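Peptidase S8 and S53 subtilisin kexin sedolisin
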Amino acid sequence: MQNSLLGIPVMHAEGFRGEGMRVAVFDAGFPGVLELPNLAHLGGPGRIVGTRDFVSGGQAEVFHRHPHGTQVLSLIASADEEGLLAGAPDASYVLCITEDVGSEYRIEEFNWLLAAEYADSLGVDVINSSLGYWDFDDPRMDYRISDMDGQTALITRAAALAAKKGILVVTSAGNYGGRGAQSITAPADAAGIISVGALTRSQERAIFSSFGPTADGRTKPEVVAIGERVALTRPGLQGTIGFGNGTSFSAPQVAALAAGLWQALPETSLDTLIQRLLDSGNLVDRVSAELGFGVPNFERAYFGVVTHVAEKELVPITLFPNPVAQGQVLQVRIPTDARQFTWRIWNSLGQEVLAGEVERGIGASTLQLAVEPLRAGIYVLELEGSAGTVRKKFIKQ
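Tokens:
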């Protein structure tokens, strides 16, 4: 369910699994990553391109400490086709420990800043940060609601700076939702990033999922994903699938989606990428104070023009077979008496790729269209006849 809501199966079917993208994960530790069957592929050449433990002064060893980071990483990089398959298993990764679970002080925000500088030096495209800061062991360090303004917390300013450098920062919204409104944690209040809230499996806001607005009135989180009973890897259980709750586990799903989408649209600017993700949300027409733009989806984001222009039915038509395999003819059943039609087919970028005119034979109930030249993907057929114009999506395999 967690993958299907985001359109990950469609993304993979289109051939986008994060290849060529660099994703940084800032967390509390990554024990067992290279031994777990579903993550062992990351031990291959060029898969983990950098590691730093900033809690320990920047040493290279990160495959220790708290397993939270391993769980988060599994939601981006897991490659088990028969078990846990994440959105971006073919990406390259930078793993940084910035969180010290033994204590809570603002030094961890400095660790995050150092990690962002390091990630930037390695050409990272996406940062996943399943971390949030609000209260500390020293109460004098605690933040107030007025501090969640996108400009006060050091980690927030660091995240905004990373965004200005062209890095997509995806962060958890926080797990303080029981407080009600204005419960987000830093750096979720940063501008120019994507903060992610948590949904239950019934697609309602999880009670713990933090939401805004920010102190300066911006909607947070921007998007949501499943955050209750999320299937993930538990390293202490020999890599078997376990379940976890929290916005920590919502964010990496969206980070994986973003990596695949950016792979699919390599010339897209960061601002445009973010806008595509927001526009693909299922609440884009009724943005929610608690859920933002809703659940983003690859199909809606990637096929933007096509899926939003998409289907228009003045009369019901049926396309079959759909999907249509290579070598098959696409047949169109139309319940009208019209015989002459003009047709056009658009590809995933909204470009017209095929067009022509066709005549339905006397007594025939279908039109036949040769779609052999089309590569695999999702398309929209527009058919214009005396009864009007209709549009219908189909898949070419």
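The chain has a mean pLDDT of 92.
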